[in-house]
Amino acid sequence: MSSYKKKDTIIIKDVTHTYKTETGLLPVIKNLSMSVPENGFTAVVGPSGCGKSTLTKLISGLLQPDEGEVYLSGEKITTPRPTVGMAFQNPVLLEWRSIIKNVMLPLEIVPNKLNSLEKEQRAKQLLSLVGLEGFEQKKPSELSGGMRQRASLCRALVHKPEVLILDEPFGALDAFTREDLWQVMHNLRKEEPFTGILITHDLRESIFLADEVVVLSGRPASKQFFVKVPKSKTPKLESLYSSKSIDMLKSLRKQIEIAQSQQEQNK
After folding, report:
1. Measured distance CA(99)–CA(93) in Å, rounded
2. 106-115: pLDDT as tens digits
3. pLDDT value of position 147
4. Could you tell me the pLDDT band of residue 229, with boundaries at 50, 70 and 90?
5. In terms of Cα–Cα distance, which of 50, 54, 74 is closest to 62?
6. Residue 265 has what pLDDT?
7. 52 φ/ψ angles, rounded to the nearest 5 degrees
8. Could you give the percent of the chain with pLDDT greater than 70?
9. In sequence order, what DSSP letters do the residues of 46-89 get, joined into one string?
10. How far apart are CA 257 and CA 67, in angstroms?
11. What domains are there in the chain, each with its CATH number?
């Protein structure tokens, strides 16, 4: 592990993983190595079916690699980690619980030293931060899709996880709501620093939110390309139309085309 930095929260070292299917073995990830520093935020992009979601399962401990090792905060992952927060495209909020009770759910599962009042205050703090103050007692069906996703982000962060995994969290939202939530994510990072992995198909989303973007090759996935993304203290959507951003998007688009071509050849 000498090639990695001491402050790397996530370390993926020479990981290979294959699924056993009815038609035989399906190699999904091969010799993948990457890392994310403490409080860093990395976006992972690549062709559909290249292994992005498998990567999130390996980081959270829901899967064990066939070869290689995954570390969180210097500890090798051998079991599921309750200190990993996750948010998905579908918020999966429980309809029989209020929004605040949904947000507090991880605090009922993950060991912590907070009393009941402190748990509620923690949830209210996050809901206020994402603009949901006053909606604490509503049921999920009473909120719009964007509001439900805001609540989902709060639930993923409420127990202060060592890693936050976002798997296509804004993919089902309309363009305006999605861009609004990108701004919310920047506010969350500022007020609630976290180490994050973002899985996305939206290249604009990747460069607006992340500190670096990793492009995975076609299946079986390895690290094909990565680029660091310069950030201002107050990122604005207008920056996506700058010449630097456009050049970066063109470069990433080209890399995706290379990966897609490779995946077609490997079928």
Report:
1. 8
2. 999 888 888 9
3. 95
4. very high
5. 54
6. 72
7. -65, -45
8. 97
9. -STTSSHHHHHHHHHTSS--SEEEEEETTEE--S--TTEEEEES
10. 28
11. 8-81+163-266 (3.40.50.300), 92-161 (no CATH)
Residue pair 38/247 in contact by the 8 Å Cβ criterion: no
Whether residue 5 is predicted with pLDDT greater than 80 in this model: the reply is: no
Give the separation between CA 193 and CA 167, rounded to whole angstroms.
18
Taken in order 55, 59, 63, 64, is the CA torsion positive or negative? Answer: positive
**Pairing verdict, β 24-37 and 8-21:** antiparallel
Enumerate residues 6+ apart whose C-beta is below 8 A from 183.
Answer: 237
Predicted pLDDT at 1 = 41
pTM assigned to the model: 0.91
Q: Which of 169, 168, 99, 105 is nearest to 128 (CA)?
A: 99
Residue pLDDT, tens place only, 245-254: 999 999 999 9
Tell me, what's the pLDDT at 172?
Answer: 82
d(CA 194, CA 46): 23
Distance between CA atoms of 94 and 75, rounded to whole angstroms?
A: 33
Tally of CA atoms within 13 A in the half-sphere of 259 that contains its CB: 26
pLDDT confidence of 4, banded at 50, 70, 90? low
Distance CA 49, CA 27 (A): 11
Nearest in space to 262 (alpha carbons), one of 228, 215, 227, 226: 215
Secondary structure (3-state) at 42? strand
Buried b (16+ CB within 10 A) or exposed e, 179-189: bbbbebbbebb
